[in-house]
Amino acid sequence: MRYLVTGGAGYIGSHIVLALLDAGHEIEIIDNLSTGHRKVVPSAARLHEVDLRDGAALAPIVGAHRWDGVFHLAALSIVGESMRDPLHYLEHNLTSSLNLIRSCTQHGVRKLVFSSTAALFGGPDRHDAITEDAAIIPGSAYGESKFFIERILYWADQVHGLRSACLRYFNAAGADPDGRAGEDHKPETHLIPLALDAMLHRRPALQIFGTDYETPDGTCIRDYTHVSDIAAAHICVLDVLDQRSVAYNLGTGTGHSNLDVLKSIARVSGRDVPWHAAERRAGDPPMLVADATSFTRDTGWTPRYAAIDQIIETALAWRTRHPDGYGDAASQVDVAGVMRR
Ligand code: UDP
């Protein structure tokens, strides 16, 4: 099969590309490399260095083949940043997605898997796992932009028959267990890589944003899902699209507080993470945990790396081998174009 992956040079996208190539599919990637990395693109996958907001550049790529499906991940995706410049986030994510979705409808694409988010559910305090019928109240401009795109996809199906799966990820974490890809954001804002670097004394003590939430230890709770399990979920959902469009919550169903994550790092590495309490971060909901029952029932997906310690182990292994992420000398591509271990 032949698939197009937008954002395929990014963190989650690169793991999806690996999963698709491992399954024997042909892959092309669209990525403007604003946050993605050329080095993670395997030579077996063709990279189009194109910004989705550039409709004229996008159309010939979508029109070049009869794609069996499109995976749409390219987006601005940092909650805190979206609260500093919400209109920029909305403009960027909506324009790029509208261009892509319009192009898909014009060129007969039948299936699209969309990278949606648990940030749709950021509004009120929650103390239970979140099901698909929970009220959608985005707590950030980032979450709102993803919700708008889900609605665009609804109409693309109603009017043009473009079937879509909106996968609402919770917190993607960890790295390819074979060491071929990992997490490298610049600037890094995510808890696990920052905590690992603090533990490794590569940066100052970690700030924990908010220790006065109404949670058992006062810190926010998240559902950390291994990035390779998220990648596998994208392939699992394709068959469902033969029947209908869908939206699923995708997570392990287990919540870990920020302090739980630090304890896991201490267990796995044998070293404590230095940290101190800081102000709450705008747009952060206290608790986001997925009820992924529907997804598991409909697709048979279950996470292979469900334990937080497994997630930390793979993240630590990649971080240790690539201290400067894809920028370091060790991160050269091999002949197959895939990151060396
Ligand atoms: N967090 C933190 N310190 C940091 C980075 C993150 O306390 O330096 C917290 C953040 O406030 C949230 C959790 O870690 O409660 C997960 O944040 P992350 O940015 O990793 O993912 P998000 O849930 O925003 O998608």
From TrEMBL:
By its UniProt entry, which CDD domains does this protein fall under?
UDP_G4E_1_SDR_e
Tree of life domain:
Bacteria
What organism is this sequence from? Answer: Sorlinia euscelidii
Q: Looking at its record, which EC class is this enzyme?
A: isomerase
| NCBIfam families the record matches | galE
For this entry, the protein name equals: UDP-glucose 4-epimerase
Q: State which pathway it belongs to.
A: Carbohydrate metabolism; galactose metabolism
- The UniProt record lists the EC number as 5.1.3.2
Which InterPro entries does this chain map to?
Answer: Epimerase_deHydtase, NAD(P)-bd_dom_sf, UDP_G4E
Q: Which catalytic reaction applies to this protein?
A: UDP-alpha-D-glucose = UDP-alpha-D-galactose
Cross-referenced SUPFAM superfamilies = NAD(P)-binding Rossmann-fold domains (SSF51735)
Q: Which residues form the NAD-dependent epimerase/dehydratase domain?
A: 4-251
Q: Print the organism lineage.
A: Bacteria, Pseudomonadati, Pseudomonadota, Alphaproteobacteria, Acetobacterales
- Similarity section: Belongs to the NAD(P)-dependent epimerase/dehydratase family.
Record keywords, A-Z: Carbohydrate metabolism, Isomerase, NAD
Instruction: Tell me how this protein assembles.
Output: Homodimer.
Kindly list the cofactors needed. NAD(+)
